[in-house]
Amino acid sequence: MTTATLFTRRLIRIDGADAQSFLQGIVTTDIDGLAEGEARPGALLTPQGKILFDFIIWRADGGFLVECDQALSEAFLRRLTMYRLRAAVTITQEEASVSVTWGEAADSAAGVTDMAFAKAGLLLKRAPIALVEAADAESEAAYDALRIEAGLAQSAKDYALQDAFPHDILLDLDGGLSFRKGCYVGQEVVSRMQHRGTARRRLVKVTATTDLPATGTELFAGGKPLGTLGTVVGGQGLAIVRTDRVGDALSSDLPILAGDVAVDLALPAWTGLSFPTGAAEADA
Q1: Global pTM value
Q2: Pairing of strands 112-114, 38-45
Q3: How many domains are there within the chain?
Q4: Same domain, residue pair 65 and 185
Q5: Strands 63-69 and 9-15: what pairing?
Q6: Segment 148-165, tens digit of pLDDT
Q7: In which band, very low, low, confident or very high, does the pLDDT at 96 lie, cut at 50, 70 and 90?
Q8: Do 131 and 207 share a domain, yes or no?
Q9: Distance CA 125, CA 127 (A)
Q10: Sheet containing 201-207, strands listed edge to edge, beginning at the edge strand earlier in sequence
Q11: How far is Cα 147 from Cα 120, in angstroms, rounded to an integer?
Q12: What distances in angstroms separate CA 29 from CA 56, 175, 200, one per listed residue?
C-alpha cells in the first residue's frame, strides 16, 4: 500500500489578511518561511512550553490548512479563536479528511510535500479529500508503520498532550520548531531548553524480534523505567524515553524490556543524535 486514507485527521482553514502574522505569533512553526507546496509540523504550546495541540500546516488558496487529530479539532479551533482577538482572520472547520501518498506513487500525486518525512528521506504527500465517515484500519496501520520508519510522533498515539515538550518529539529537528523567529506562546521555555541543552527525553524507534506489547507498556532496564511504548505495528514501534537512562543501560549492557519482550532502541538516524554514555543520571 502506498496511499492511506486517514479517518482520524481533520482540517481547519485559516484565512484573512492577518492569517500569516496571527499564526507566526502563536505557534512553533516558522510560518513566514513556509513555502508553497510544503507541509511542516508544528505545535501550539502552553505558557510552560508543553504541547497543547500538535498539527501539520501548509499554504492553500491564499490561506492555510491545518491538519490535526479529528478528536481535538473542535477544541483546537476554539483555542485558535480565543487567540484571534481583533486580527483579520477567519477560522473554520473543513468538511474534509486527509489522504497521504508515499514512495514512487508520490512523484505524480497531487498534494503538498511533508517536509518532516523528507528529513527522514521519505517522499510523502498530503492532500484534502472528501470527509471519510468510517475508519480504514489497513490504511491507518500502513501510515503508522511509515511514521515508525521515519521516526515521527503523533499525539494520542505516542504521547499525551500537555505532557511533552517539543524537543521530546523531535520538533526541534524536523522543521516544526523555530528558534529564529519572534516570540510565540511557550517560546521562552523551549528556547531555554535549546540553549542549555537540557532536553533529556527523546523519541526513539523500538524493535523486537517478535510482536511488541500494546501501546502504553512501560520500558525498563535494570529495574528503572525508561519510557512508554507509543505507536506499535508488529515488532516495530515508537517510544519517548529518557536518553540518559538508555545510555546508562547500554553502557552497562543491561537488557531493555517492553513488558517481558526484549527490545532494541535507536534514535532516528536523520536526527544525528546519540545516547549519552558515562554520565551520572540526573534526578527525574
Answers
A1: 0.94
A2: parallel
A3: 2
A4: yes
A5: antiparallel
A6: 999 999 999 999 999 999
A7: very high
A8: no
A9: 7
A10: 261-262, 256-258, 218-221, 224-233, 236-242, 201-207, 264-266
A11: 10
A12: 9, 7, 22
